[in-house]
Each structure stands twice: as structure tokens, then as C-alpha cells.
Specification:
The complex is a heterodimer of chains A (267) and B (258). Chain A is mainly alpha-helical and 267 residues long. Chain A has 12 helices and no strands. Chain A is globular, with a radius of gyration of 19 Å. With 258 residues, chain B is mainly α. Chain B has one domain (21-252). The chains are: A mainly alpha (267), B mainly alpha (258). Chain A binds chain B through residues 20-21, 24-25, 27-28, 31-32, 35, 38-39, 42-43, 45-47, 50, 52, 176-182, 185-186, 188-189, 194-195, 199-201, 204, and chain B through 18, 20-21, 23-29, 31-32, 34-36, 38-39, 42-43, 45-51, 113, 171, 173-175, 177-178, 182, 186, 189, 193-195, 198.
């Protein structure tokens, strides 16, 4: 455990070095969230009754999504991992006395956390200050916030374990860039990155809520705003735990299988 | 020009060397914008209209913006990568060649995988144009072409400005993404739905609305004045300042060393 924590710390500190990039990122994400909300409010004006969530809930959904983007989006791949597999540098990783799955998992988590911690605070502060219709609100209760907190980390775990499956598939296919983009786009869409799941048409929504992608950003963002609360929230967290265990288990199994027959590219 | 065609055929040949990989990237690009399209469709299944625009009318908007942005990104790909060109010294090699530096930068890379989006734009547009109930006249055909052409110019100039900024910062400025990528992503709806202030900004500062919202009104017979029809030409006015900014940056440029 100690070695993973050490790795975690190293990655965390490295990411904190790029402060200027973070500043530009913050401004971008803020503007992005703002535009997103303006679009939703245009639809809200057309027909408030057709809104499947309260407008206030959509507002917090979008702001938290933008603030913690680096934690929730599948498309933040670690290009180093792809490069390691394709260039053969993986050989060096294999001689180290740490489990490769755990190592990649913890360094991805660290990377995402560092990015999110650095960027989220300023975005959230401004989001709490903008004028009312678009102002971020607090969660309905302390308990709800605790559930949100727990759910966020589970979501991060599910996202990274899904990423791991994509990395591992590179062993088998040397998967080209296109396949990665498709996987990420599909996952993010079904996780509610473009529009929240409640906005999906009934049939689509029913299916989407059973898939592992619903255990990603969908859950914490809706728990924070109180759209999923009480026992439904507890059920949701159970749902996330089940998918997390399944994906990690699958990943570890495939990794073991892949490493047994791995052919290191190049000399 | 002959030289450019030669470069172009070189790029086609080199990208065709890895066919499977190329087509998958094409498909990836397609899926990226397809997700956005699906989002729009889902919203319209629920709301049917926004600010008085119907789904088919919004698709005209989405299609033209998607088409012009993917054209600009296909041929202006090297501006997107320009920060790297500066930091690895590739740009210095370009400067010593006896041709216009913008052209040489442009020729250094062409990204045909953007055709994945272009194909989608063509499909969306052809569906939208037949179903949105526009009474076609020659003037409207011209307007549509102006929208696409003007849009390509504006997106292209945004990339040029993005590249120009990196003369000063060496790194790319992530904030420009809100204009380049954001302009494309949010251009799926007429810019007017984002409210007055956003519309003014996109009219007078970055003229994206001139190639999208105003001519759209003309296409849909909501406005009949020629001003609306010709407004994409106004978007082209964005080119001289963008070019000027690039020149200004170039004069101040002092390599990054080796």
C-alpha cells in the first residue's frame, strides 16, 4: 500500500506544477459551463413543465461537472500508458516489483485528483457568486453532501477502471486512436456528459441507467443536487460499488491474461 | 498552387498508408460529433422547439457550422499544433525557406480524419435542407454557400490567432479553445439563444454569429433584408486583423533555442 501512496504523491506534486495551464483551464471551463447553462435556460423558457429536473438542479449539475471535469470524463486518457505499451517501455514496468494494474490505477487516480483539486475551487467560488438563476446552490442537507462525497470517489474509480480496460485492450489490438475516441465518446455520452440522463427519452434512459456508465458522473452530480436522495441515493451507491468491483475484477483478469502472452514490441 | 497540390497528394498518400487506423480515426471523429447531435435530438424530442426554431431548422445551423469548422480544422490542422512546432524548432526550419511562412506551415500537415465530421455535416445538411421547409431561391443558395465559406474563414482565422498567441506564450493558450472548439460545439444552436450579450460578443468581437445566426434568419424568411443575406461577408472582415496579429507576433518572435 505504501508504495502506491508514494506514487500517488509524486504524480500529484508533478501535476501541481502546471499552474498557468490550470488558470487557462479554469477560465475555459467556467465559460463552457456558462454557455451550457444558457442553452439549458433557453429550453427551460420554452416549456418549464417538460424539464425532468428542477432548473436549480441542472445548474449544480453543470457547475460541478465543469469543476471536477478531470475526475469524471473518460476521455482524459494517460497517453504515457499507451506509449509504454506501444513502444515496449512496458518491459521496464514489468521488472518492477509492483502490480502493474494497481500502479496504473493509482497513478491515473492521482493525476485526475490533482487536476481537479487545482481547478475546482476557483470555478466553484465563482459559480456561487454569479447572479441567481445560474447561481450554484448548496446540497439540501449535510447527509446528502456526505453521500455525494462518497459517490464522487466511487465514480472516479469506475471511470478509471473503465480507462484501464481500454489500456489493456491495447495489449491485444495495439488499439488505434480512433477506437479510443469512440469508446470515450460512447461512455461519456451514456454517463450524462452532454445532457443529464433524465433528459434522455424514456426507453433510452431505462437502458442507460443499468449500464456501468451510469455509475460515473451521473450518480454524484444528481445526488449533490438532491435529484436522487434518501434510499434511492443509497441504492445508487450500491450500484456504483457493484460496477466498480466488476470492472476492476474484469480488468485484473484481462491484464493477467494479457501479460502472460505479451510480446514486447521493438528491441 | 501547383506546389500545394503536390503537398496535398503527399499527405493523402502518407495517411492512406495506415488504412485501418485512418478509417478508425475517421469513425472516431464521426462519433465525437455524433454524440452532440444525439444530445440535440434528445432535447428536441422533449421540447420540440427553442426560441421558435424547430429541430430541422436547428440542424441547418448545426450542419453549416460543423461543415465549416471541420473544413477549417482539416486544412488548418498545423495551426492547432503550432505551439509544438515552435517548441521543437520545426518552425525555425520553415522560416529559412523561400516561401510565405503561413503557406509553409499550412502545408506541413493536413488532417483528413476531419472528413469524418464533414461527412456527417453533409448528411445532416442534406436531411435538414429538404425537410425544414425553406422556399428555395437562387439567392438562398448563395446565402448557404456564403454561410459555409464565411464560417470556414472565421474558424480558420481563430486557429491563426491561436497560433499567433503562441509566439508570445510558447505554450498553447487553452482559453482559445472556448472560441475554436466552443464556437463549434455551441454553434449547434443559433447563437441568439445564449442571450443578448453573447450574441453581441459573437457579432462584433468574434464574428461567428455573422456566418450563422443572421444568414439563418434570411434562409428561414424571418428577415428579408439583404444585410442579413450578405452578413457572412462581414465575417471575412475578421481575416485582416487575424493576419495582422500573426505578422505582429512573427516580428516579435525570437526562436526558443535548441
Amino acid at each position: 500500500m505504501k508504495e502506491y501512496l508514494a506514487l500517488f504523491r509524486v504524480r500529484f506534486i508533478t501535476s501541481l506544477q502546471y499552474r498557468a495551464a490550470a488558470l487557462a483551464g479554469i477560465a475555459t471551463q467556467f465559460a463552457w459551463g456558462f454557455m451550457e447553462l444558457l442553452a439549458f435556460s433557453a429550453f427551460y423558457k420554452v416549456n418549464p413543465g417538460a424539464f425532468p429536473m428542477e432548473f436549480r438542479q441542472v445548474v449544480t449539475y453543470i457547475w460541478i461537472q465543469q469543476a471536477f471535469l478531470a475526475m469524471f470524463m473518460v476521455w482524459f486518457y494517460e497517453n504515457e500508458i499507451f506509449a509504454a505499451i506501444q513502444s515496449g517501455a512496458i518491459a521496464y514496468e514489468l521488472v518492477r516489483p509492483v502490480d502493474l494494474y494497481n500502479r496504473w490505477f493509482s497513478s491515473s487516480v492521482a493525476n485526475r485528483l490533482a487536476k481537479a483539486v487545482l481547478r475546482s475551487m476557483p470555478i466553484l467560488i465563482v459559480a456561487f457568486l454569479v447572479p441567481p438563476p445560474l447561481r450554484m446552490s448548496l446540497p439540501p442537507s449535510g447527509g446528502q453532501f456526505a453521500l455525494f462525497f462518497l459517490s464522487t470517489f466511487l465514480a472516479l474509480g469506475v471511470v478509471v477502471s473503465f480507462n484501464m480496460l481500454v489500456y489493456i485492450s491495447t495489449f491485444y489490438t495495439l488499439s488505434p486512436v480512433g477506437a479510443r475516441i469512440i469508446a470515450a465518446m460512447l461512455a461519456d455520452f451514456l454517463a450524462g456528459s452532454i445532457i443529464p440522463l433524465p433528459f434522455f427519452p424514456a426507453g433510452f434512459r431505462y437502458v442507460a441507467e443499468l449500464l456501468p456508465f451510469a455509475a460515473m458522473q451521473n450518480m454524484p452530480l444528481r445526488i449533490y443536487s438532491g435529484h436522487i436522495s434518501g434510499t434511492a441515493a443509497l441504492y445508487g451507491i450500491g450500484f456504483q460499488i457493484v460496477w466498480l468491483i466488476t470492472l476492476v475484477g474484469l480488468g485484473k483478469f484481462l491484464m493477467k491474461h494479457a501479460l502472460r502472452r505479451v510480446v514486447v514490441q521493438g528491441g | 498552387m501547383r506546389l500545394y497540390l503536390k503537398f496535398l497528394s503527399m499527405h493523402v498518400k502518407s495517411q492512406m498508408q495506415y488504412k485501418v487506423s485512418f478509417f478508425l480515426t475517421l469513425l472516431g471523429e464521426f462519433s465525437a460529433s455524433f454524440a452532440a447531435l444525439l444530445g440535440v435530438w434528445f432535447m428536441f424530442l422533449r421540447f420540440h422547439e427553442v426560441e421558435g426554431f424547430t429541430f430541422q431548422q436547428i440542424l441547418v445551423c448545426l450542419g453549416t457550422i460543423l461543415m465549416s469548422s471541420s473544413l477549417a480544422e482539416c486544412f488548418g490542422r498545423s495551426f492547432d499544433r503550432f505551439p509544438q512546432m515552435i517548441s521543437n524548432g520545426q518552425f525555425d526550419r520553415i522560416l529559412v525557406r523561400p516561401r510565405n511562412e503561413i503557406l509553409l506551415v499550412l502545408w506541413s500537415e493536413v488532417d483528413f480524419s476531419r472528413f469524418g465530421r464533414l461527412i456527417q455535416a453533409v448528411i445532416v445538411l442534406s436531411y435538414a435542407l429538404f425537410t425544414c421547409g425553406i422556399g428555395w431561391t437562387w439567392l438562398k443558395v448563395v446565402t448557404l454557400l456564403l454561410m459555409i465559406g464565411g464560417g470556414t474563414v472565421v474558424f480558420f482565422c481563430l486557429l491563426l490567432v491561436y497560433a499567433g498567441i503562441s509566439f508570445f506564450t510558447i505554450e498553447g493558450l487553452e482559453f482559445m479553445n472556448i472560441l475554436t472548439h466552443g464556437g463549434r460545439e455551441f454553434g449547434r444552436y443559433p447563437y441568439a439563444i445564449y442571450g443578448d450579450r453573447v450574441l453581441k460578443f459573437l457579432t462584433f468581437v468574434v464574428p461567428l454569429a455573422l456566418v450563422q445566426y443572421y444568414p439563418l434568419l434570411y434562409l428561414l424568411d424571418l428577415e428579408t433584408s439583404f444585410m442579413y443575406m450578405l452578413s457572412p461577408l462581414g465575417g471575412v472582415l475578421f481575416a485582416p486583423p487575424a493576419y495582422g496579429f500573426w505578422r505582429f507576433g512573427l516580428r516579435r518572435y525570437t526562436s526558443t533555442g535548441s
